[in-house]
Amino acid sequence: MSNDNTAQQVEPRRKERRGFASMSPEKQREIASKGGRAAHVKGSAHEWTSEEARAAGRKGGRASRGGRGRLPEGGSAD
User: Fold this and answer.
1) Distance between the two ends of the chain, CA-based, in angstroms?
2) What is the Cα gyration radius of the chain?
3) Cα–Cα distance between 48 and 59 in angstroms, integer?
4) What is the signed CA dihedral for 53, 59, 78, 72, rounded to 10 degrees?
5) Per-residue DSSP letters for 30-66?
6) CB 3.0–4.6 Å: which of 14, 23, 59, 67 could bond 27 by disulfide?
7) What's the CA gap between 76 and 17, in Å, rounded?
8) What string of pLDDT tens digits covers the 78 residues of the chain?
9) How far is residue 55's CA from residue 48's CA, in Å, rounded to a whole number?
């Protein structure tokens, strides 16, 4: 019995883009914008306070390890 799989090879299937992924970036932005506006009209949208925004910015800066949030050589995370 040989270990030849050539007869059993299957072509890899290419995934088709569906939904948002199939739309142009402009169309995605347009639809997302409509959703954001609707949430504000409904009153269910989150409105950031300046303190929440500052905290989120600090957290993102630390996570990216870029800029001033970079760890020194040999340093460890918080």
Assistant:
1) 58
2) 24
3) 15
4) -120
5) HHHHHHHHHHHHHT-S----HHHHHHHHHHHHHHHT-
6) 23
7) 41
8) 555 555 567 777 778 888 888 999 999 999 999 999 999 999 998 888 999 999 998 888 787 665 555 555 655 555
9) 11
